[in-house]
Hints:
- By secondary structure, the protein is mainly alpha-helical.
- It has a single domain (3-115), classed as de novo design (two linked rop proteins) (Up-down Bundle).
- It has helices spanning 3-24, 29-53, 58-84, 90-115.
- Helix 1 (3-24) packs antiparallel against helix 2.
- It is elongated.
- The mean pLDDT is 96.
- It comes from Posidoniimonas corsicana.
- InterPro entries: 23S_rRNA-intervening_sequence (IPR012657), 23S_rRNA_IVS_sf (IPR036583).
- This is Four helix bundle protein.
Amino acid sequence: MSKQEEFKQRTKAFGLRVVKLVQSLGDDRIGRVLGNQLLRSGTSVGANYRAACRARSAAEFRAKLGICEEECDESMYWIELLVDSELIRAELVEPLLAEANELLSMIVASINTSRNK
């Protein structure tokens, strides 16, 4: 399996984990608002990576990866806010935050590699 296919699977798995986290949140107003924000950004990482894989130029590839970078970082923000607002315990989302951080590092590295070619 190519690295590209592995990363597609990994970003999709991240999105699915976000979906399950959002499903576990309470149905109060704050949980719905923060959950919707996280759901949008967390599932967008994989969707935009797939779009980057179909880019027609190096510039378009970097632009799509830039969106992945923003959405991944935003997902981390929403997860941190859920923890800080005590809607979810930190230890429950530490693995998800660690994965988001790894994905973000890999996305940034890909952008930098593409720029240096």
